[in-house]
Write a structure and sequence with these properties.
135 residues, mainly alpha, 6 helices, 0% strand, transmembrane helix
């Protein structure tokens, strides 16, 4: 009898967990456009950047630029509606400039979010003084 109760509880917990996961996934489309920065910030908190000899802002900027400019280029190519050319003509810009500007905005946001996440947990090591300098 006890095993049946445990199985029932486990299946109920799995069902509730899956329902919550499905609700969460359905809500992802309703998130604001800047919500990716929260994930990037958490990524900056979690990664051990102290082992890497690279700039957190530089890596974040590069990734954000490539993702935003690449995604916008892909959508522009697949839709064949030439939305970027139309918006660019309204703003007095060429389509390429508009795509690069969107990549710049995405790169700045991603770079700053990754840098902020790293800076929130990063503690610089104290400088080690040599014995010759101490004398």
């Amino acid at each position: 009898m006890r095993a049946t109760t445990n199985n029932l509880r486990a299946s109920l917990a799995i069902s509730v967990g899956l329902a919550l996961l499905i609700i969460l996934v359905k809500q992802l489309a309703m998130l604001p456009w800047w919500s990716f920065t929260v994930v990037v910030f958490a990524f900056g908190l979690a990664l051990p950047h102290r082992r890497w000899n690279v700039s957190a802002f530089g890596i974040g900027f590069l990734v954000g630029f490539v993702v935003w400019a690449g995604t916008n280029t892909l959508y522009s190519t697949l839709s064949q509606a030439d939305l970027f050319a139309k918006v660019g003509s309204v703003m007095g810009l060429h389509k390429i400039v508009l795509l690069l500007a969107s990549g710049l905005i995405g790169g700045l946001l991603t770079g700053l979010a990754l840098l902020a996440g790293k800076s929130a947990v990063y503690q610089s090591k104290p400088a080690v003084r040599s014995m010759a300098a101490a004398e």
